[in-house]
Design goal:
Layout (H helix, E strand, L loop, with lengths): L1 H11 L11 H7 L10 H6 L4 E10 L5 E9 L2 H10 L10 H5 E12 L5 E12 L4 E5 L2 H9 L20 H23 L2
Antiparallel strand pairs: 1-2, 2-3, 3-4, 4-5
């Protein structure tokens, strides 16, 4: 428990919220984290290549806690899985139909606003959705999520599958095939756990 508390202190608190912002969304977007002081939270989301779009909203819980939520629609998730499905090897595997049902993924960040006007990242999850109504919610570590955000890391990079169009025996083709196979297995496991 002490490790979690120390991690929360390390990654979450704002150094100096910018004064004069009316809403809690503006407070979070203009805030600078101790975790990485090179960008505001809004700049990090605005430049994150992983997001096709980011929605910001604020709400209050039944207990009166103020929450700001940023939801990133993860870019190229559907095209990525369709490219895997279209590959000669993975597309012929029985049970690969979960890839055709995959409709997308979203990363959800929830920030809680403190009484003193500071804030911290409280929760991160990635939601995977399929067209048959199934959905899987995967919690993500706060530090890992911030690292991905501030390092501009991408979850579904189509370029790593370019070798699927190469000759089967080429080095690039084998590397892409291993990646496609690993993603197929991961997506199958998520689909099996989805409700």
């Amino acid at each position: 428990m002490k490790i979690f508390a120390a991690l929360s202190l390390m990654v979450g608190f704002v150094l100096f919220p910018a004064p004069g912002h009316a809403g809690n969304v503006d407070l979070v977007k203009s805030g600078v984290l101790k975790f990485n002081q090179s960008l505001t939270v809004g700049e990090a989301f605005g430049g994150w290549a992983n997001c096709a779009a980011t929605e910001w909203r604020q709400f209050e819980t039944a207990r009166g806690q103020r929450v700001v939520e940023s939801v990133c629609s993860i870019k190229d998730a559907k095209p990525f899985t369709m490219k895997i499905l279209a590959s000669k090897v993975v597309g012929n595997i029985s049970g690969a139909d979960h890839l055709s049902k995959f409709s997308g993924a979203k990363a959800l960040f929830q920030w809680t606003i403190n009484k003193d006007g500071s804030f911290q990242l409280a929760r991160v999850e990635v939601r995977y959705d399929w067209s048959d109504g199934k959905s899987y919610h995967a919690a993500m570590g706060l530090k890992d999520a911030l690292t991905n955000l501030f390092n501009n890391e991408v979850d579904f990079d189509l370029r790593i599958l370019d070798g699927l169009d190469s000759e089967i025996g080429s080095e690039q083709g084998l590397a892409a095939l291993k990646t496609a196979s690993a993603y197929h297995q991961l997506m199958y496991a998520l689909y099996e756990r989805a409700e």
